[in-house]
Amino acid sequence: MTVSSFHPPSRVLMGPGPSDIHSRVLQALGRPVIGHLDPEFIMMMDEIKGLLHYAFQTTNQMTLPISAPGSAGMECAFVNLVEPGDNVIVCVNGVFGGRMVENVERCGATAIKVVDDWGTPIDLNKLEDALKANPGVKAVAFVHAETSTGVQSDAAAISALAQKFDALTIMDAVTSLAGTPVLVDEWKIDACYSGTQKCLSCVPGLSPVTFSERALETIRGRNHKVQSWFLDLNLIMGYWSSEGATRSYHHTAPVNTLYALHESLVMLKEEGLENAWKRHAKNHLALKAGLEALGLTLLVEEGYRLPQLNAVKIPGGVDEALVRRRMLADFGIEIGAGLGALAGKVWRIGLMGQSSSPRHVTLVLSALEGTLTDMGANTGNGGAAQAAQKVLLA
User: Fold this and answer.
1) Which of 29, 42, 86, 171 has CA 20 to 30 A from 122's CA?
2) What is the pTM for the complete model shown?
3) Which residues carry this modification: N6-(pyridoxal phosphate)lysine (predicted)?
4) Torsion 21-118-69-184 (CA) sign
5) Domains within the chain, CATH numbers bracketed
6) Region 111-122: what's the mean pLDDT?
């Protein structure tokens, strides 16, 4: 077998992640490798921490990128905070709440599930009932932005309930960070994790995390060793500590990937967080207008929709997988399929980071309209791109 260099096709990424990456970030990946204990690299590490403070809106000392994807950030939060015998309330309204349950159970703890229908936000009354019925729970874990459904829950209210019952909060912000407000300090979130490949528009493979002082006290007071050596924050902080230039070797950091994260965070700071939130919101409204022109509707009720992840109901008689395949083959556009209970029922159209732009909105709408029309589907009066343009130019 003859093997040659791999040259990926050009794609427009509009699924649930990864998102398109700006040329500045790709160029950063190609810069010369230096040692992960080099004084210049350590200086950049400190800048990354400061930029992540901005992105998370926090002053938490323990704020850093885990050298693995968002799933490792999730596991880092659970293995450090949860011990055998603990009770943890987990809010489940999609795939990723279910993964939280798995993490709790693998820590030897009991997961008390608060379950809501997929596509609906976390029910605060159900959560409060669970807290009342289970005094002494260690933490409340929830997904802020459920990528599998496109729904956003009220993180501030969930955290306030947890505080009322003296429980820690563990929040998944993989899809929300830099796309909608994530206010870690204001909401008093104890542990929050995200990923680099969504609204930060960096390459996959890193998970920004942040832990409150209250969370760190919990970690310092553990009765058992953290079950994961690689994700033990007591060890990781020896490498990411800001105290001078001396760092303890923990693992060989992904040097070039961290260059890329640094660049993407610099770009976020240049744009401004509030401007990034407004951009995602406006492009979502334009996409919504275009979809409605085609007679298509969104799964999630208005007011709870994620602007950066849109779950679109599939019209009757349409082969949803064929639509996705044709959009990829004919236009080079990737959109996502439904997961779990929503498999075959929705398309997931992402407007994340660099993929959240007027160009992306009009491109995906035109491609979707053309594909559906060619397949004989009823697309109403059409004019999806024009409907979106009215919103974009308003």
Assistant:
1) 86
2) 0.97
3) 198
4) positive
5) 23-269 (3.40.640.10), 273-392 (3.90.1150.10)
6) 98
